[in-house]
Design goal:
The chain has 258 residues and is of the alpha/beta class. The chain has one domain: 3-Layer(aba) Sandwich (Rossmann fold). It has helices spanning 3-7, 22-33, 45-59, 73-87, 110-137, 161-181, 199-202, 205-208, 211-217, 230-237, and strands spanning 13-17, 37-42, 63-67, 92-95, 141-146, 186-193, 248-251. The chain has a seven-stranded parallel β-sheet, with helices on both faces. Bound molecules: nicotinamide-adenine-dinucleotide.
């Protein structure tokens, strides 16, 4: 069997949080293209349903939509149960849902800080541990978390201390779970994208206005595309990454190199 065949995800079942659009939609599409059945998990159920339909039609795989607020423990437990029941198991997941709140630290409210932490890191703890418990009891699995280059650097000029801190925490949670579960068949890795042209950036006027400044700082002079994160996630979800755990993959066109 050649390497491309070995990397396929035929027979595997997984879910993507924040899968309705942006990076999550892209990785969900790639998982299905590689042969997996996939659940699109999102707060925005209407868009998740449309995305699931689009991916199912394009790939012929079973793709379902599930409404879930990843900050709510009961929602996440129900979602994992529904994935297992409707897809027939759980082999991998991509904990990807996230938000970005920009505010100077001395003006940021505690509520803004808590909201950012709830969606960006507390939700990853819930998703990873609830999905992880199933995987530990059922022969193992692979968990991918979306961190960010913001967990490695402090972005400028926009102030985003909560986002940066939450993404650094995603990486350290990833490493901690990877070590705890290394001998029990569950691998945990993270990806750290640079600036990617999704609605998180393009639909936020205060961020969209900064794209030219970011591009001037970027060695490649451009934003990344969500498609440019697909292949690493297919690799991490599948069996060829069996010795890869506790790693963070920076995909940023060398933005963080200097
Ligand atoms: P996006 O805003 O396009 O998509 C995020 C999705 O998450 C949306 O569909 C939204 O409905 C969903 N979501 C938000 N809160 C949720 C909740 N509580 N429960 C369930 N779903 C929820 O964003 P994106 O650019 O695709 O970002 C995806 C991930 O990538 C985020 O974690 C983000 O921090 C990270 N990231 C993005 C960039 C970038 O430049 N776009 C760079 C680095 C990291």
């Amino acid at each position: 069997m050649g390497i491309i065949e070995k990397m396929r995800l035929d027979g595997k079942k997984g879910f993507v949080t924040g899968g309705a659009r942006g990076i999550g939609k892209c990785t969900a599409t790639a998982f299905a293209e590689a042969g997996a059945d996939v659940a699109i998990v999102d707060l925005d159920y209407e868009t998740a349903v449309a995305t699931a339909k689009e991916i199912a039609e394009a790939t012929g795989r079973k793709v379902i939509a599930l409404k879930c607020d990843v900050t709510n423990e009961d929602d996440v437990k129900k979602m994992v149960n529904d994935v297992v029941e409707q897809l027939g198991g759980l082999d991998f997941c991509h904990a990807n849902a996230g938000i970005c709140i920009n505010a100077p630290a001395d003006e940021m409210t505690y509520q803004q800080w808590l909201k950012n932490m709830d969606v960006n890191i507390n939700s990853v703890f819930l998703t990873d541990t609830i999905a992880g418990k199933y995987m530990l009891a059922h022969g193992g699995g692979s968990i991918i978390n979306t961190a960010s280059m913001s967990g490695h650097i402090v972005n400028v000029p926009q102030p985003q201390c909560a986002y940066n801190a939450s993404k650094a925490a995603v990486m350290q949670l990833t490493k901690s779970l990877a070590v705890e579960w290394a001998k029990r068949g569950v691998r945990v890795n993270s990806i750290s994208p640079g600036y990617i042209g999704t609605e998180l950036v393009l639909a936020a006027p205060h961020l969209k206005a900064l794209i030219d400044q970011w591009n001037a700082m970027a060695p490649m002079g451009r934003l990344g595309k969500p498609e440019e994160l697909e292949s690493i996630c297919v690799y991490l979800a599948g069996d060829t990454s069996s010795f890869t755990t506790g790693s963070d993959f920076i995909i940023d066109g060398a933005f963080t190199c200097f």
